[in-house]
Amino acid sequence: MTRMIAGLLVRRALVAVPLLVLVSFLLFAALRLLPIDAAAMSLPPTATLAEVAAKRHDMGLDRPVIVQYGIWIDGVMHGRFGQSIALRRDAGTLLAGGLPTTIELAVCAMLVASTLGLGGGLLLFAARGTWAEAAGDLVATLLMSVPDFMWALLLLLVFGVLMPVLPFIGRLDPGLTRPSITGFLLIDALTTGNSAVLFSALRHMALPAVALGMAFAPPLARVLRSSLLDVYHDDYIRQARLRGIGETRILLCHALKNAIIPTLTLMGVQFGFLFGGTLLVEVIYGYPGVGNLMVDAVRNADLPVIQAVGVSYCVVVIAISMITDAAHQLIDPRQHAR
Amino acid sequence: MTFKLQRRALLAGATAIAFAPRLARAADADAVTIGWPNDVGTWDPNQRFTPDAQSIFKAVFDSPLTQNQQLKLVPHALAAWELAPDALSMKVRLRDDISFHDGVRMTTEDFKYTFLDRIKTTPGLDTANSWRKVQDIEILSPTDAIMHFSSPAPTAPQWMSFLGSYIVPKHAVEAVGAAAFAQKPLGSGPYKLVDYELNARIVLERNDAYWGPKPKIRRVTIQVIKDASARVAAVQSGQVDLTVNLPIRDTVRLQADAAFTAALLPITRVILLQVRNDLGFADQNVRLAAHHGIDKASLSKAFFNGAAVPLSVPAVSGTPGFLADFSFPYDPEQAKGLLARSGFSVEKPAKIGLATTNGQFPGDYDLARAIAQMWKKVGIEADIQVIEYAKYFELNRGGKLPEATLYSWDNATGDPEIYTGYLLNPKMPFSAWKGMEIGQKDMDLFNVANYDDRIAGYRALNREAVSFGATIPLLQTVMTIARKKGLEMEAFGQWLGVAATLSWS
Which of A243, B308, B482, B483 fits as disulfide partner to B475, beta carbons 3.0 to 4.6 Å? Predict the structure, then answer.
C-alpha cells in the first residue's frame, strides 16, 4: 500500500513539474503584457527618464519576454523570486513569511467547513423526505449565497462588536510575543508550550476560519447527502439490514465509508478555492498571510510578488490534488485492487 | 516540550474561548494599541517615500529638523542650521546628547553617512532623489558640518524634516548591511522597535534614554488594519485605543458617542485636478469654465461633512503660498459664458476625459462623479476613467492622461516648492501641465535662493496659474481620527504624534 501511494505521488510530481513551468510562464507573460512599467514604479516619482531607462535595462525589461522568463526561472531555481517593487525585499522571502499563516488559516477553515459540511450532510440525509430536509436545503442555499468576505464582515460585526466575545484583529493579543520557529503560530505555540499564545491564536483564528469555511460547508453537505442516497440503493446496504445491523451503524460504518469519496474529492477542489478566498478575509481581519500580501501587490502592481504568490497558489493546488489522490488510494478499496 | 495537551486543559481552553468576557480592555496607563491603515513596508527609513509610514518612523528615528504645530521648522537632531544666501551650502550643528538605541553617540559622521555616503553606495534609496544635489558634507567636528550642494537647494531645510530624512547609524548599517538593517532597525527616536510582523503589527517600547521629552506611554502596539470598516469595528469594540482614516460618516457617528473622541482634522493634503494644456483643455475658456463650474463647498458638505476647506490655490491656509485675498468663485453662469465664447453649451458640450482613482483616498471616485455632474450642468461632458494611482506617473510620462485627473497631494512641509513647484513643473513627473508659459516660471523658482523672494514668486505664480487655468485646486482634505475618551494626543499638519505625544488622562 505504501509503495502504491509513493508511486502515485512520484507520478503526480512528475506531471506537476511541467504543469508548474507552463502556469508560471503564462502568468509571467500575462503580467508582462499589462501596461505597467515596473522600472518606473521601482523608482521614486522624482526619477529622471534616464534613470528609469537605466533601471529598465538593469531589470532586463528591455529584453524579450522569453529571455526575461528564463532569467526569472533561473533565479527561482536558486531561491530568488525577484525584488518586490514596493517593499524592496525578495519576493520569495515575503512569500515564505506569509505562507505558513495562510496555510494554517486555510487548514483551520477547511476543518470548519468539513465539520459543518459532513455534519450537515448526515443531518440532511437523516431528515430525508421530511420538512426538515427542505428547511436544511434552504439554509444551505442561504449559506452558500453569502460570499466569504461578507461572512467576514457579518461575523466581525456580530461577534466582534455587538457581542464582543472574540478578537478580530491580527493573530495575537497585543501584550503577547509570538514565538517564531516555523511560522505556523499554532505549531510554534504548542512546540514552545506557550498556552497563552496558543489560546490567543485560536481565539483570533476563530472568526476568519469560520468566515472562510462557512461558504464551503453547504456543497460538502449536499454532495455527501447525495452520495449517501446513492449508496443506500446498493445491495450491501440491504444485506446489512437483513443481517440485523442497526441503521446508525449501517450509516456510519458501511455507507459513509463509500459515500465520503466524492465528498473528499470536492474537499480537495474546494481547498484550492478556499486558499484563494483568503485574500479579502485576511485584509479584513488583519491577518498577515499571502492573501494580504497579494492584495497589496495588486494595488501596487508589484509584479514579482504577484508572480511569486500566483505560483504558490498553483503549488498548493497541485499539492492538495496529490494529497487527495493519496487519500483516495487509502480509502477506496477499488483503488487497491488496481 | 513543556506544555501537555490534556483533555482538561483543552476543555478549560474551550470554555475560556467560548465564554470570554467583553473584549474591551481597561485602559492600561502604560500601553496603547493603535489601528493603522498601512504597514511601513521597510524599516529602512531612507528607502521609500511612504507618507503613512512617516508618523511611525518618527517614533523610532530622529530627523534633523521637525515642525511645530504652525508647521514652522524647529530644531530636532540639529540644534541649529544656516542656509547660505546662495543656497549652495548649509551649516549644521548636531546636538551632542543624542545616542542611538545601542548607546552609541550620534555624530556628524552619521549625518554625512545618511545624506551622502549611503546614497552613493546603496542602490534603491528614495532619499537619493531628494538629496541628489548634495555634493559633499564637510565634517568640522563631531557636531558641526557643512553641506555643499551642486546647485541651489533653497528647500534643503524643509527636506530635513520631510519624507525619508532620518539619520541612521553608520556603524550599525555598515556592520549588518542595508538589508538586515531594514529588518531590524536601530534608531535614536523615543521608541525602540521590539517586534514586527509584516502586515500585522508593530510593537514599540519606550526608549528611556531618549534625549528629548520622554513619552508617557511605555508600550505602543500598532495593529495594521487595512480595511476601514474593520478599523471602525476595532475602535468600537475596544480592540484598539485609537485609529485613523475612518469613513467620514463613521467619524461623525463616533463624535456623538460619549465613549470616544473623534475628529476630522484639516491636514496639509490637498485634492486638486491636475490638468493638461492640450487636447480638450487647449482652450483656456474650457479650463476656466471647468473650474468655475465646480461647487467646492457642496463637495465638502457631501463628502467631508463640510470639514474639508475649499481651496482657490494649491496651498492650504497657514502655509507660505496660501493667498487669503484671492478666491476663484463657483459661478456656473460665468462657466456657461466662457464655454459659449468657445462655441460650447449644455446642448453641445465640450468633451473631455476625467481620470480618477477609486479608493486611493476617501471618496475619490464619488468626487469625480459629482464633478462630472456639475460640469454637465454648464456644458462639459466628462468621460470618467478609473486609473490605479501607481499608473499616474507612467501615463503622465507617456502623455496618456486625459484632460483632467483627480489627484491628492501631500506636503507636510507646507513649502510652496513642494506644492506648486512640484505640481506645475513640466519637467517633473507629477505635473500634467506641460505649458511653458507657467512651467518656465515654476522652474525658475527652483533656483531662487532668497526665501522671501522665493515665497513671493510662488504666491504670484499661484495666482497666475489658477487664473490661467493651469491647475484646479479643490479642497484641503481632512484626516479622520477616533480614540477612546481619556487618550490624549497631539496632531498637527500631516504628522500625527502617533506615539510620542500619547497619554492617558
Answer: B308
Give the H/E segment covering residue B325. none
Is B391 in CB contact (< 8 Å) with chain A? yes
B16 contacts on A by Cβ (under 8 Å): 199
A211 CB neighbours in chain B (<8 A) are none
Predicted confidence at residue A259, as pLDDT, reads 87
Chain A interface test: which of B6, B34, B194, B237 (most A C-beta within 10 Å): B237
Query: Per-residue confidence at B11, pLDDT binned at 50, 70, 90?
Result: very low
Q: Quick check: A169 and B225 CB within 8 A?
A: yes
10 Å Cβ neighbour count for B85?
10
Side-chain-facing half-sphere of A266: CA atoms under 13 Å: 20
pLDDT at A333: 64
For residue B206, give every residue at least 6 positions away whose Cβ sits within 8 Å of its Cβ, in sequence order, or none. Answer: B190, B191, B192, B214, B215, B217, B218, B219
Touching check for A162 and chain B: CB below 8 Å?
Answer: no
CA distance B263 to B480: 6
- Tell which residue, B15, B237, B84, has the closest CA to residue A164: B237
Question: How far is the C-alpha of A286 from the C-alpha of A274, rounded, in Å?
Answer: 17
Interface touch A46/B24, C-beta < 8 Å:
no
Quote the strand ranges of B6-59, DSSP E. Answer: 31-36
pLDDT at B496: 55
In sequence order, the 6+-apart residues with CB closer than 8 A to the CB of B26 are none
- How many other C-beta atoms lie within 10 A of the C-beta of residue B479? 20
pLDDT, tens only, A82-131: 889 888 889 999 999 999 999 999 999 999 999 999 999 999 998 888 89
CA distances from B191 to A123, B202, B205, B361, B482 (A): 56, 11, 5, 29, 23
pLDDT tens digit string along B279-329? 999 999 999 999 999 999 999 999 998 999 999 999 999 899 999 999 999
**CA–CA dist B297, B306 (Å, integer):** 7
pLDDT digits 0-9 by tens, B400-419: 999 999 999 988 888 999 99
What letter represents residue B155's amino acid?
T
- 3-state SS, one letter per residue, for B205-231: EECCCCCCCCCCCCEEEEEECCCHHHH
Q: What is the pLDDT of residue A338?
A: 54
∠B176-A38-A41 over CA atoms, to 5°? 70
A122 touches chain B (CB under 8 A): no
Residue B465's closest CA among B502, B498, B431, B437?
B437
pLDDT < 50 regions, chain A: none
Integer Cα distance of B468 and B441 in angstroms: 13
Q: Which residues pair with B91 in a beta bridge?
A: B82, B146
Whether the CB of A5 is below 8 Å from some CB of chain B: the reply is no
Q: Is A89 on the interface with B (CB under 8 A)?
A: yes
pLDDT digits (tens, 9 = 90+) for B254-286: 999 999 999 888 888 999 999 999 999 999 999
Buried b (16+ CB within 10 A) or exposed e, B220-253: bbbbbbbbbbbbbbbbbbbbbbbbbbbebebbeb
Residue in B48, B194, B235, B180 with CA at minimum distance from that of residue B124: B48
Q: Which residues pair with B353 in a beta bridge?
A: B383
Distance CA B241, CA B359 (A): 25
Q: Cell numbers 514668486 correspond to what residue?
A: B457
CB B130 within 8 A of CB B161: no
